[in-house]
């Protein structure tokens, strides 16, 4: 079953008095329980697509369905849609409030959605991503880059979303920490039956994580790869 259907998506920006097309006529589906990835060089439109699906980029054209319902340009996500579509950003430090403790960062989404047993849920989330309980009283600057990204993943998972959008989730991390985070994401996907849309320019990350992938250039999807093609490394020529 397709949780995401994107048809003829186009996103344009006004930059320095000129209209720039960031995404042009992109079409793809994301099926329940799979990891579908967008690969391509920086500026090709990958992250813009994620921002549309996260409700952060509200000006676009085309047809987009999320979780069996069509979304519309210019409309803020509400209710179940906000809960069921979560995003992990590239830079974990920039996505965490520097003056909030990790506990406050993790507890706020639960409070906003009227959840109960907040302390227990936060402690469980921290445990799921492999962080010690005393991390709750720390601030982002007191954690390593890998630990901050684990906090960002824990925050995204707290509301048990059906779709997790991952925007270069390991590119700001050292190689050894990258592997830890990728393996963590794969384990959590299996544990909770989640569905991922992953953006990366790293061919190794795509091969490790993906069931299917699409290569983007100049705002458009150029090729799609199934799992067999990814295993054969066919996507590497495009990623190079």
UniProtKB/TrEMBL annotation:
Residues 4-240 form the ABC transporter domain. One of its GO terms (biological process) is transmembrane transport. Its main location: membrane. The keyword Repeat does not apply. Pfam families: ABC_tran. Keywords: ATP-binding, Cell inner membrane, Cell membrane, Hydrolase, Membrane, Nucleotide-binding, Translocase, Transport. Gene3D superfamilies: P-loop containing nucleotide triphosphate hydrolases. PANTHER family: GLUTATHIONE IMPORT ATP-BINDING PROTEIN GSIA (PTHR43776:SF15), TRANSPORT ATP-BINDING PROTEIN (PTHR43776). The complex is composed of two ATP-binding proteins (GsiA), two transmembrane proteins (GsiC and GsiD) and a solute-binding protein (GsiB). Belongs to the ABC transporter superfamily. Glutathione importer (TC 3.A.1.5.11) family. This is Glutathione import ATP-binding protein GsiA.
């Amino acid at each position: 079953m397709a949780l995401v259907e994107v048809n003829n998506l186009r996103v344009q920006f006004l930059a320095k008095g000129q209209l720039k097309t960031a995404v042009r006529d992109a079409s793809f589906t994301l099926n329940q329980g799979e990891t579908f990835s967008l690969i391509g060089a920086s500026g090709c439109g990958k992250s813009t697509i994620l921002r549309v699906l996260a409700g952060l980029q509200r000006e676009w054209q085309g047809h987009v369905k999320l979780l069996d319902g069509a979304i519309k340009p210019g409309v803020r996500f509400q209710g179940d849609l906000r809960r069921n579509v979560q995003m992990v950003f590239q830079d974990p430090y920039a996505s965490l409030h520097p003056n909030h403790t990790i506990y406050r960062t993790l507890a706020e989404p639960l409070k906003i959605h009227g959840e109960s047993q907040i302390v227990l849920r936060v402690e469980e989330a921290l445990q799921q991503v492999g962080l010690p309980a005393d991390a709750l009283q720390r601030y982002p600057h007191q954690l390593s880059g890998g630990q901050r990204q684990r906090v960002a993943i824990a925050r995204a998972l707290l509301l048990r979303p059906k779709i997790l959008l991952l925007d270069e989730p390991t590119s700001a991390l050292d190689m050894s920490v990258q592997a830890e985070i990728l393996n963590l994401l794969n384990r959590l996907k299996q544990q909770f039956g989640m569905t991922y849309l992953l953006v990366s320019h790293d061919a190794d990350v795509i091969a490790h994580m993906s069931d299917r992938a699409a290569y983007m250039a100049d705002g458009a999807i150029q090729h799609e790869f199934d799992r067999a093609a990814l295993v054969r490394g066919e996507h590497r020529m495009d990623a190079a």
